Sequence to fold (95 residues):
Amino acid sequence: MFDLKCKRMNCKYNKACNCSAGKIDVASSTACTTYVDSGYKKAKGDETPQPPTRKNTAVKCKADCLFNDNCTCKANGISVMTNDFQPECCTFMPK
Fold:
């Protein structure tokens, strides 16, 4: 998957709202379980547009989602948004 947007500013894989993780895992609850706290509080101003060329990242998913094909996300891209506790995939669409 090429289009990965992430708003979890304090994740160690978040590079200016671009995910740099080698793979992403989404739980059945839609939580991004790849998240690791960076220990650094990034500001909203750290956001920049995604580059036009980026690596393809595998997204494994356990959610009962329209894009889930045998635990692999088949969406063109996903957005991970933040809440107070856990980042979540907001691209989720129930089957």
Q: What stands out?
A: Strands lie at 3-6, 14-15, 18-19, 23-26, 58-61, 68-69, 72-73, 77-81, 88-89.
